[in-house]
Known about the structure:
The chain is α/β, with parallel strands linked by helices. It has helices spanning about 15-25, 40-50, 60-75, 105-130, 155-175, 195-200, 210-220, and strands at about 5-10, 30-35, 50-55, 80-85, 135-140, 180-185, 230-235. The chain has one domain (about 5-235): Rossmann fold (3-Layer(aba) Sandwich), CATH 3.40.50.
Amino acid sequence: MINKEKICLIAGVGPGTGKECTKKFSNNGYKVAMLARNLEFLSKLEKEIPNTKAFKCDVGNTVSIINTCKKIKEQIGHPSVFINNAVSGILDGGGASNFLGDNPENLEKNFRVNTNSLLYFSRELAPEMINNKSGSIIVTGNTSAMRGKANFAYFAPTKSAQRILAQSMARELGPKGVHVAYIIVDAAIDTPRTRPIFFGDKKNDDFFCKPSAIAEEIYHVAHQNRSAWSFDVEIRPNIEKW
């Protein structure tokens, strides 16, 4: 039986891209399951944005992923769109780090969140999408998925592996009616956390990629006509050097 309700699951809902994706899909008639470790933040969003429900989930923990997906299916229904936005390693000391001097366990930690979680979420959600011959799995990535820079040895390999996993999934799931795409954000994303890192109290709006604009593109890709599906989608501000 085809699920006629529009349900979107977003893993990694914070004050940037995750929040804006939640608003975008909610405004377009979706029920949205919001996942993050910070349940207090999600509960505030639940009151602010209609048709949303908060679920606490540690995406670095396989059991947490499986149990949370089960709760979502029981309480809301089967998602037709999954947005994998959770990330580990950029700003928490596990990404921009010297591979000789920093903790090598950061590589495994980042892999669990950035790559392993995509595998297990998709294993939980893809079967129903295949059954319905319809669905979208959208993964948010960044430049590290395409190249490894100095001091990113514990981060870039996990994003590259994430992209290749998504590519393998796309080739398997596409003929079955499920669209898998990888959004490469080649920029700093404008959030309360990132802006002070780059500019302190100064303002430079042109430097950042806006979360609302990212959400617009994610929504577009998730609803592409199946005769013209994208996989690698690169987005960046007009002033970005590339």
